[in-house]
Amino acid sequence: MNHYFTNDENLKSERRVIKYNYNSICYEFISDNGVFSKSKIDYGSKILVETYLKNKKNIKNFLDVGSGYGFISIVLSKELKIKGLGIDVNKRAIKLALENAKNNQVSVSFKESNIYEQVQGKYDLIITNPPIRAGKKVVLEILSKAKDYLEKEGEIWAVIRKDQGAKSIIKELETLYKIEIKEKSKGFYVFVLKTN
Question: How far apart are the first and last CA of the chain?
């Protein structure tokens, strides 16, 4: 079975445009086969972005882990008027994200990276809708190692569905972070991690 966190060079391309409106701006995203949530904006990503923007702080930059075709990065960059970096293991998703950033006129960088392998520097915000299907071990690695790339007062924002292990993952992170659940919607938990 093909997953959005693998690279399948033989996968047929069927590009499509997905629209999203926020704050009277209409965003357009080109999507394709072999990427996460290829036919519509994922509800978890949408609730994560919208909850963050309701609670936003004054930040200089962000890192989007598992950025897919760029939805979270592009909306945050446009709304906050800041630069960010999106990382993903999926080559096709990265190509689409670069194209989408250009089309939506934002200055976000995207690069291929297996979790934090290609990441340098520190960020005010690390945001992720982690790849649940890659397994709990990968999700925990993304969230537990995020603190190494966080500025002193920085925050990690994430979204996970209750039926995909949100409660047990949050429990396992309690030794590393102060945790606050910011939103619960349609089974999705949006939560913030801050270093102790």
Answer: 40
Fold designation for 42-195: Rossmann fold (3.40.50)
Band of the pLDDT at 14, cuts 50, 70, 90? confident
Distance of CA 106 to the CA centre of its chain: 16
If we measure between CA atoms, which residue out of 193, 165, 190, 163 comes closest to residue 47? 190
Q: Which residue is associated with the tokens 């992170």?
A: 173
**115 three-state secondary structure:** coil
Closest CA to 126 of 148, 170, 156, 149: 156
Q: Give the torsion sign (CA, 168, 173, 178, 179).
A: negative
Residue found under tokens 């075709």: 69
Q: Is the pTM of this model over 0.85?
A: yes
- Each domain of the chain, given as residue ranges in start order, spans 42-195
Strand order of the sheet with strand 108-112? 108-112, 83-88, 61-65, 123-128, 150-161, 188-195, 177-185
d(CA 119, CA 152): 17
The predicted-structure confidence for 114-166, as pLDDT tens digits, reads as follows: 999 999 999 999 999 998 888 889 999 999 999 999 999 999 999 998 888 88
Q: Under DSSP, is residue 165 helix (H, G, I), strand (E, B) or coil?
A: coil
pLDDT tens digits, 20-40:
999 999 999 999 988 888 878
